[in-house]
Amino acid sequence: MKTVSENRSFGGMQGVYSHESSACSCEMTFGLFLPEEARHVPVPVLWYLSGLTCTHDNAMTKAGAQAWAAQEGIALVFPDTSPRGEGVANDDAYDLGQGAGFYVNATQAPWAPHFRMWDYIAEELPALIGSEFAIDMDRQAITGHSMGGHGALTLAMTLKDRFVSASAFAPIANPTQSDWGTKQLGAYLGDDRAAWQKHDSSLLMIEHGFDGPVLVDQGTSDQFLDLLKPETLAEAMVKRRQDGVFRMQKGYDHSYFFISTFMEEHVAFHAEHLYA
Amino acid sequence: MKTVSENRSFGGMQGVYSHESSACSCEMTFGLFLPEEARHVPVPVLWYLSGLTCTHDNAMTKAGAQAWAAQEGIALVFPDTSPRGEGVANDDAYDLGQGAGFYVNATQAPWAPHFRMWDYIAEELPALIGSEFAIDMDRQAITGHSMGGHGALTLAMTLKDRFVSASAFAPIANPTQSDWGTKQLGAYLGDDRAAWQKHDSSLLMIEHGFDGPVLVDQGTSDQFLDLLKPETLAEAMVKRRQDGVFRMQKGYDHSYFFISTFMEEHVAFHAEHLYA
Predict the structure, then answer these.
(1) Which key words tag this protein in UniProt (chains A, B) (predicted)?
(2) Residue A230: pLDDT above 90?
(3) CA B205/CA B224 separation, integer angstroms
(4) Which of A192, B2, B77, B103 is such that its CA lies 20 to 30 A from the CA of A85?
């Protein structure tokens, strides 16, 4: 693991690190915020999965999460959204290939050898940060935005007992029924729609639900409402009798101005359960 | 004036606007955050002047100021750092020309016709925002980072009775004695060092001081300490018996991770005086 940068932030440290990923067969970069408490004791961790086109950097610099994580004594991890590099397949579209890993393990050419973001987030990166930093891996929570909200919810519902709480900002909520989903799931997983269903949080919500509490925020002025399909997830949460809150936030759009506005409440929500 | 974008943020609105500037003879862009209160009554305003290489956008997206401005009921204005465009002079260096206006009125070719950032910030932009938005121009305060800290302090000390309070993050504090200063002041103002002295906050502090309170934060691990010369300003503040606080912040560097960490305290400091 190499240190790319470390900047003091809110009494703690915002680091950026890179490492050779076996899951993705390329060098991967991630951001990690450690609050001051981590100098003395292992701290709980909140995962933040980012959306289409983002790297590890966007949320780390624009979501304003460090202020609240420092206050609560929680680490934040900001993974990249896909494998990257010259030897990694790509597409001219912003929503396929590099920057658009969709948190799945690709089975189809040309994506299969590198695009294994599910294994990277579910297995490899937790093992790495658990061994390299003062993080208590028995206390994890997860959130994300857009494609990252999709990733957060699907990982939370699938990895039983991994996360104590799950939240999302404007998640891609029903990808098997949206152009943000059918395109990527088709490319990465092929035509077998049964494989797609494991990566649709509305379907997983109906089938499994999540054992902990769920918080979802969605702006009413989001320019991508037709692609996100929040109503399907809201309906599924209620049908499931899921312990959870789905909030429509009047006038907010899909941007980091929306995310940063509600970040304090998401961090506090997770902190309540991480420190329960 | 044209609306470039408007995003709902912390109950208020983060806008970006452009206009034909007479001071700079080109189109200029600025960011403006209005808290919810501005729907009903004119609110006080805090100016944030940015540093070298920045546009209006950097602080608006990375400094985390909107959270605190919303809490205090204060507008934020984020001007650009120089004139821009194809017809505007430039230099290959990051610290001269576009992105490096240094908050002066250039008198020398090729800069003179456009590089009039002093007049833009002191006269034109206040008149524009005072007429177009619900801002109480009798209650203004100013802050900034690096080159923008230099701009904030020099404007505050020169424009008597304009600002109730002034602060800075890692300001270029003694530009007449630094490579961050002699290069730009020489290029924009020529060889007459008497003209430079009006743009050196350490010299102005000795000569005038500031009628209101001053807050300065400087990281001890700032990679540009030799260029910023904070010791000269700290000495001048004490010699002047200036109402003010100069804080060395252990381990912090020159980045937005430093700025965002202390933004809450700067906004609260200004709010105390804007609402006095």
Answers:
(1) Hydrolase, Serine esterase
(2) yes
(3) 22
(4) A192
CATH of domain A2-274: 3.40.50.1820
Instruction: Using an 8 Å CB-CB cutoff, list chain A residues near B252.
Output: 8
Q: Binning pLDDT at 50, 70 and 90, where does residue B276 land?
A: confident
Number of CB atoms found within 10 A of residue B122's CB:
18
Residue A52, helix vs strand vs coil: coil
| Chain A residues within 8 angstroms (CB to CB) of chain B | 7-11, 14, 61-62, 64, 66-67, 219, 221, 251-253, 255-258, 260-261, 264
With tokens 């960490």, the residue in question is: B261
Q: Is the pLDDT assigned to residue A276 strictly greater than 90? A: no
Per-residue model confidence as pLDDT tens digits over B86-100: 999 999 999 999 999
Question: From CA A155, how far away is CA A178, in angstroms rounded?
Answer: 19
Condensed to tens digits (0 to 9), the pLDDT of residues B181-234 reads: 999 999 999 999 999 999 999 999 999 999 999 999 999 999 999 999 999 999
User: Do B260 and A219 make contact, defined as CB atoms within 8 angstroms?
Assistant: no
- Confidence check: pLDDT of B15 > 90: yes
Across the beta sheet with A244-249, the strand order is A2-9, A12-21, A26-34, A75-79, A43-49, A135-144, A163-169, A214-219, A244-249
- The overall average pLDDT reported for chain B is 97
8 Å CB contact between A202 and A232 = yes
Across the interface, whether the CB atoms of B8 and A257 are under 8 A apart is answered yes
DSSP 3-state of A103 = coil
The pairing of strands A214-219 and A163-169 is parallel
Active site residues of A: 146, 222, 254
Contacts of A62 in chain B (CB under 8 A): 61-62
How many CB pairs (< 8 A) connect A and B? 64
Identify the helix (H) or strand (E) that includes residue A153.
helix A147-158
Give me the phi and psi of B118, to 5 degrees please: -60, -55
Contact B79, B23 (CB under 8 A): no
CB contact under 8 A, A67 and B260: yes
Domain regions of chain B by residue span = 2-274
Average pLDDT of chain A to the nearest whole number = 97
Q: Which residue has the tokens 């379907």?
A: A203
CB B32 within 8 A of CB B45: no
Task: Kindly list the residues from chain A whose CB atom is less than 8 angstroms away from the CB atom of residue B261.
Answer: 8-11, 66-67
Q: Which of B21, B50, B82, B146 is catalytic?
A: B146
Half-sphere exposure of A107 toward its Cβ, with a 13 Å CA cutoff?
Answer: 8
Selecting from B7, B14, B251 the residue whose C-beta is nearest the C-beta of A8 gives: B251
ipTM of the complex, rounded to two decimals: 0.87
Question: What is the pLDDT at residue B220?
Answer: 95
**Residue pair A229/A235 in contact by the 8 Å Cβ criterion:** no
Active site annotation includes B19: no
The predicted model gives A43-72 an average pLDDT of 98
What percentage of chain B's residues is helix, strand, coil (to nearest 5)? 40, 25, 35
